[in-house]
Amino acid sequence: MCDIAAWHDCTVAVRLRAKHATWENAIIRAVTSIDVARAAGVSQSAVSRAFSPGSSISARTKQKVLAAAASLGYRPNRIPAIMLSGRSFMVGVVIGGLENPFYATALERLATALRESGLQVLLMHVDDALTLDSALDRLVSYRIDAIVTSLAIGSKAVVQALSQLRLPVVCFNSSHVGPWISTVNSNNHGAGLVAARLLGRHGMQRPLWLAGPSRNSASRARGRGFCQGVRDTGIPSARLVRVQGNDTYDSGYDAIARLQKQGIRPDAIFSSNDMMACGAIDALRECMGLHCPHDVAIMGYDNIPQAAWRSYDLTSFDQQTDQMVARAMQLLDEALGTQDGPVSRTCIVDAQLIERGSTRAAR
Amino acid sequence: MCDIAAWHDCTVAVRLRAKHATWENAIIRAVTSIDVARAAGVSQSAVSRAFSPGSSISARTKQKVLAAAASLGYRPNRIPAIMLSGRSFMVGVVIGGLENPFYATALERLATALRESGLQVLLMHVDDALTLDSALDRLVSYRIDAIVTSLAIGSKAVVQALSQLRLPVVCFNSSHVGPWISTVNSNNHGAGLVAARLLGRHGMQRPLWLAGPSRNSASRARGRGFCQGVRDTGIPSARLVRVQGNDTYDSGYDAIARLQKQGIRPDAIFSSNDMMACGAIDALRECMGLHCPHDVAIMGYDNIPQAAWRSYDLTSFDQQTDQMVARAMQLLDEALGTQDGPVSRTCIVDAQLIERGSTRAAR
């Protein structure tokens, strides 16, 4: 028989035995509910109820417990509850690429939303989605309830590894689907269409698509939308120049510098993200002597804070991170709450066009 | 008596009882070491040894266990070990202000260093250090081993709350000290002196100190160093103009716009961070018609990626985040390893001057 009381006895036994262990001071300094019960002159179960929202306990007893807990520096221990319920209320959040301010902001909003739902973030930073698998072993050993990741998951092997965890997984802007895996996507294709229409109204004749890495499925969808939109304005596909960057400022700068050497001068640019667009704006000025928007109209994606900085004043698409995070939380709730096996859903959030100076001038 | 075997029995009992609980599917989908032992035809203790580095187990048995574990999707459970040892190998990392790319980069490096030390990050995002106290309760209930925070802790009450946790705490750029609390600081005062010397060589006559929020002790130290350095160049203190921002781009822009209205035109600016310096550069151009470095020399702090962007080309101080994180890890090791009660240390890392175009021109 193993109930809560037995667990507490175990904790005490561990405390006593640990006096001779290496981690002695790490353990004996922890104040337990027994210490609090003794100091408050109440039962141990009263201490437990005082820290469980909605439990039956008189206001007077609760106050005695909280006062004793505060004076001893006691904080309740969630670990026995994790063992008993199988739920840790921890969500593994796997991130990478925080040098892009968009991901940093998304992480802040996600961490806030999870905290507000009573969930705790167990963070895993990986350099690349391809290294995700080894990170998962460690995360899962903490009995996390679910995983949320903002990594661009372009590999089927990684999707398979995620599915095999048999844990709810929520991804952002991922193209692969699988059992247990839900995805929240920005309307990347739709935004590409909108970009072409807007640039068309500015007299676009020599369009340029500045693509992200080929493994980035969101970038590919933006490019397909833009290409279709350019055709819709009556410009033949062959006139659309495509260059590829890797989502960094430097790669946007270098892409324009390369075009300069080839004698190609675009008059309208859609960049797969804002970082590359900022690099492109600086290279247009420094390498080609072209200014935005007078000589070139340019748009990015993500609406990072720097898009609003006056040196760039960049028209962009805002992914509506708040909405995307809210949808992710709904998918998470649904997946955690169901008894009917793995959930796998996709939802799409429209990006909002933010017009700034880089496309404003009538030319 | 409570040993590892008893814990495993508990886990089984919980699994059986949980079949009738709400979180049934969250629990019964987890594969246990018993399932793996049965599939591999070995004892449960062999499974445990296969997943414990350095344990005595034959290569053949270990391979059988790993194959069975892989086919069942089993991953070891760290929770019983947390209860027995009192160590979770989780470190609470408290962050805020990721809109500043400096903090985002610091978080990435810290998360990587912790992972490489076998520690896991339990992330807590708070909007402000003043709200830290309520966040701590939740973190500590997971029996974290220590806390690392990059928040500017300017309040004695927060320091007291941290000390009362009786857990090792490591802060970055914090001025307050207390039992259990160690700090890694950038040499903020020294950098202020260096900034004044460099700007002095560029003919500084009308210096401006663009300060961060007054609760930011790192900013105050930079300002004191700069003020002393300006005096050392022979310029009377009264000639040093001081304006205050809040570490954002907009606050740097607005500070210069206000000076324009007062008819004050600086010729040398030291900004407490790069974000405000970027705002100042744009406002100097747009509001005063002044260009850097021809009319004004300007320096920032943090060496964020945008400092290297061509529109800013900003001279800055690099905090040497790698070194600061390495020192933080040493302090953490020391605090976790000692038997001699609370550790409280401060160490200082020199910032590296990165000279760029914003201070380069001879005027």
TrEMBL record, chains A, B:
Q: Would you say which domain of life the source belongs to? A: Bacteria
Keywords, A to Z, come to: DNA-binding, Repressor, Transcription, Transcription regulation
Q: Which InterPro entries match?
A: HTH_LacI, LacI/GalR-like_sensor, Lambda_DNA-bd_dom_sf, Peripla_BP_I
Cited Gene3D superfamilies: 3.40.50.2300, lambda repressor-like DNA-binding domains (1.10.260.40)
Matching SUPFAM superfamilies: lambda repressor-like DNA-binding domains, Periplasmic binding protein-like I
Among its keywords, does the record have Transcription regulation? yes
Q: Where is the HTH lacI-type domain?
A: 31-85
PANTHER family documented for this protein: LACI-RELATED TRANSCRIPTIONAL REPRESSOR, RIBOSE OPERON REPRESSOR
Its recorded name reads Catabolite control protein A
What molecular function does GO assign, one term? Answer: transcription cis-regulatory region binding
KW Ligase (keyword) present:
no
Q: What Pfam families does the record point to?
A: LacI (PF00356), Peripla_BP_3 (PF13377)
